[in-house]
Every structure is written in C-alpha cells, then in structure tokens.
C-alpha cells in the first residue's frame, strides 16, 4: 500500500541532470512519518525504493533557478524497511529454497536425469556468504542444473539427519545413481566445485527410477521426532522375505558320487 508524502527540501540538494537516491540523505524520518503516518523506524534515507517519484506543477518547483524552498513528492511503501538477505540476492530461475523434508525428497525424485546440487548453508557462516555470489554465477551459466538451498538454521534437524555438520557443504545427485559426490567447499577451493560440476554435469540417460536420498537417510528422517516426515522402509520387508526363503528352502541332497570325489580329494591333499 503506497502513501504519498510531501517533504520540504532545500533546492540545492536536487540535481538538475539526474535524480539520485543519495539526494535524500538529509531527510529526517520524523518529517516523513508526521505526514504519511508511517513509523519512523520503518523509514530511512537508505531504504527509499527506485520507484521514488518527483513531481510538481511546473519546472520551477522541480528545478528552481532561485534558492527557494521546494516540495518533493515521495511515494513510500510499508515494505521499505525490509532489507534483502544475502542468500536471497542474485538468485537464478534454476535455484530454489527447500521448505521442508518432503520438499527436498520430492525435488530430488522429480528431477529425473538432471543433475541436482544441494547447497547447505547458514546465514551466520562467513564462508557461505563469500561463496554465494560465485554459486549464483555458476547456476546462471548452467541452467540445465538444479540448485537446492537448505538453510541450516531453519532446517537444523533435517541437516543432522543427513549427517551434515560442516558448512558450506554440497551434495550432487543424478538419476538412478542417487548421490554421486559430496564435499565441503569454500571460496578458496571453488575449483573442487567446478571440477565436480564438469564431471557429473554432462548429459546422460540413466536406466531405472530416480533414487534421490539414500534409504538410511530416509529412515533417519522418519525416526527424527523433530521432523514431521513419514516413511515406510522398503528394505526391511525384502530382508524379511529373504530370511523366510532361506529358512524354508530345502537343501539339495549330496549324491554318492559327489561324496566319493570329495573323499578322494582329501586323500590326495593329505598325501
């Protein structure tokens, strides 16, 4: 919701050739809030959006020749007090933030034969912050690769179930092969990330169902009480069926000829 406010400015601060947001450095938040009913805490000279407008009835108001006070019409918004977080900057269309364990599992399984890079980061991690712009540039150059961001602070239990304890950390998944590699990488060792992307990023068709997370990881996520994730293990049933087959499967009797051959081999070896 936009609100119009009129602020009295010194005409010297207005540039005739171009309009710069830095021209508003001398505006007091209180002077704006008293006119547009917005809290001074939500208004700062650094938070004016690029939609800030200057209008007047004639050129003398916008660019007066004489040093007379001028009125500037500023269009402010209630969302101007929110700063963009560093992990939200320079994101590409093939970059997505994971919202839940189900979102992570579904994104990996629905990727098909595409290469998926899972980026584990933390807002308080300096190495993650320094590496983020380079990862965004790599994502821009490789639109066929999907990048999933997992915020450690928001999904701490999920990361612990996946045994992720070092940041920044990356995992590469592809088709029926599942996880093809995983490693920790920093701004200084970005070469490791590029080499893994070149190795596993080539187009290929895999035979079989897309694997995604490993079975033991899915079981660990389901066993974690902090996660509302339901999963029924598949391997336990297969193991139980195999045990039942081994128990009830009759063994083939050994023939007399086979026993004689075994005895002769033992006599020769003892001699």
Automatic annotation (TrEMBL):
PROSITE patterns: THIOREDOXIN_2
InterPro entries: Thioredoxin_domain
Region (Disordered): 229-271
Residue ranges that the Swiss-Prot or TrEMBL entry lists as coiled coil: none
GO BP term (any one): cell redox homeostasis
GO CC annotations, alphabetized: chloroplast
Domain of life: Eukaryota
Keyword terms of this UniProt record: Disulfide bond, Electron transport, Redox-active center, Transport
Thioredoxin domain ranges (all copies): 62-202
Entry's family note: Belongs to the thioredoxin family.
Protein's name in the database: Thioredoxin domain
